[in-house]
Design a protein that fits this description.
The chain is an alpha/beta fold. The strands form four sheets. It has an eight-stranded parallel β-sheet with strand order 5-12-11-10-9-8-7-6. A six-stranded antiparallel β-sheet has the order 2-1-22-19-18-16. The chain has a five-stranded mixed β-sheet with strand order 3-21-20-4-17, with no helix packed on it. Strand 20 and strand 21 form a beta hairpin. The N terminus is likely disordered.
Length: about 500
């Protein structure tokens, strides 16, 4: 992220909230969020490149103009859509290592910025079942070949990283919901016997996979036998039970991250038919524990992959929702049409290449907007925190919300952080998505109605000049003068809009 007059890299590395507010002009009383009293009144925060979260005075609502062409957009309070489940990001081992490199006060501040009421107030997050590409190394919870009884099952590795990470978040957000998916089963449950499905990328260390162990899209790398399905379903159950012992409830699971993708990091390809065979086994174990099963994650723009699974009644009876990410967004229109009763989640924001810049935050806005407009009820960012540079264990630099300089013991909040905060800080679980209609091209906004009746309007000005947007809200007009190239959140209390 480019810095303003004072270096934002330095400013965001400061430990105290007061120091942060005083170091960055315009952030006093805003960078640390709003007090409960301030939240009861109208609010407006605006972000431009290098100028995050600037408070702006909210104009009064006025009488509607007699001329219908004076209205830019209509916020359809009378036609609410999907109920919002929440916003959040993904826990990872490297993320916890990065945060652990901070002095305790700075780490506490970083976590507060993510989970506290004066930050993003994240309410729903993702965690891996076993190793993923942001792990310290490959591991599963049972690498003993043929251990169908799971006698050697252990989450000891997670007690060093993921479990303390989640517990630190829950200390700030006790009602935080957590969902989980695996990147790879134990290697002995796979036909190739290797955690990966593809050779290492160029200029990266060899991952040791042989040609006969490679996976391929459109094939089942998991061994298609009932005894393996049964053991793997119990593997999920043991995971849920062990996490519960540490006070962490897993609310929802998905059977496989990106089931079409053969990767050099932990991965496992499945066909829709293979997943349809496994899902009933998984459903029986999760029903016993009161855990929901969503289908996902879908990373291809092909809704037929979901339809092929839903064509199997035993599998379809288990599935309560869909997780979609990356190129899967191309399937959103068809998914919304074919499966209107299934909850739809944006399960992973596209992670970039570690630039953490305004350009990618702008791309992230366009992406998440598409999801909500097609019925998504949740949005999951990818890396909550990463060390500076964002390198994964398998050679992919990635963006994050918190970028940690592990050598200096400081952190900064990235442009993506401010993007997500524009929604997550104010849109509460249980809110309803509110359509915004415009026939004049003023469609670059999202609106939500919270359970308390407040309205959250997130509106974007993508052009390089000021823009006036006149919003009709319940028969009155809210006229907003948007700064060039800015993202804005306006919160109106229920008493203001009736």
């Amino acid at each position: 992220m480019a810095g303003p007059g004072v270096s934002r890299r330095e400013a965001f590395g400061l430990v105290g909230a007061g120091a942060l507010a005083s170091a960055v002009p315009g952030l006093a009383g805003a960078a640390t969020g709003s007090t409960p009293d301030e939240r009861s009144g109208p609010l407006w925060f605006s972000t431009r490149a290098g100028q995050p979260w600037r408070p702006v005075a909210v104009p009064q609502l006025t009488a509607a103009a007699a001329n219908p062409f004076a209205m830019s957009a209509q916020i359809r309070l009378d036609a609410p859509k999907q109920t919002i489940a929440g916003f959040g990001g993904a826990f990872s081992e490297k993320g916890w290592e990065a945060l652990s490199a901070l002095p305790a006060p700075a780490r506490a501040t970083a976590l507060e910025r993510l989970f506290g009421d004066d930050g993003c107030a994240f309410s729903q997050c993702r965690t891996p079942i076993g190793a993923n590409d942001i792990s310290r190394k490959w591991y599963s919870y049972d690498e003993t070949p043929g251990d169908f009884a799971l006698s050697h099952f252990s989450v000891a590795n997670d007690r060093e990283t993921l479990i303390p990470y989640i517990k630190a978040a829950k200390a700030l957000r006790p009602d935080l919901k957590v969902w989980a998916s695996p990147w790879s089963p134990p290697t002995w449950m796979k036909k190739g016997g290797h955690y990966a499905q593809a050779p290492a990328w160029p200029n990266n260390p060899d991952n040791g996979i042989r040609p006969d162990q490679l996976g391929k899209e459109g094939t089942d790398s998991f061994i298609q036998e009932d005894r393996y399905f049964e053991a793997y379903a119990r593997y999920f159950a043991r995971y849920v039970e062990e996490y519960a012992k540490d006070g962490i409830r897993i609310d929802t699971v998905m059977p496989q991250n990106e089931f079409n993708s053969a990767q050099p990091f932990p991965s496992c390809t499945w066909t829709p038919e293979g997943l349809a065979r496994f899902i009933p086994f998984l459903g029986r174990e999760m029903d016993r524990l009161g855990v929901r099963v969503f289908f996902g994650t879908l990373e291809r723009g092909n809704a037929d992959l979901v339809s092929a699974v839903m064509a199997h009644p035993e599998a379809a009876a288990v599935i309560k929702g869909l997780g979609v990410q990356w190129a899967g967004k191309a399937a959103l229109p068809a998914l919304a049409e074919r499966f209107p009763k299934l909850e739809l989640w944006g399960s992973e924001q596209e992670c970039g290449v570690g630039t953490n810049d305004w350009h990618y935050a702008r791309y992230g806005w366009a992406t998440l907007k598409r999801y909500f407009q097609y019925g998504a009820s949740a949005w999951t960012y990818w890396n909550l925190a990463m060390p500076k540079g964002g390198w994964s264990g398998w050679g992919w630099p990635q963006n994050s919300l918190v970028e940690v300089d592990t050598a200096a013991g400081t952190f900064r909040l990235t442009e993506d952080y401010w993007l997500i905060r524009h929604l997550a800080a104010f849109v509460r679980p249980g809110a309803r998505f509110v359509p915004v209609d415009s026939f004049l091209g003023f469609d670059d906004q999202l609106a939500f109605r919270n359970p308390d009746g407040s309205l959250v309007l997130v509106t974007n000005n993508a052009i390089a000049q000021p823009l006036t947007v006149r919003n009709m809200i319940g028969g009155r007009m809210l006229s907003l003068e948007l700064a060039p190239d800015s993202l804005n959140t306006i919160v109106l209390p229920a008493s203001m809009i009736g």
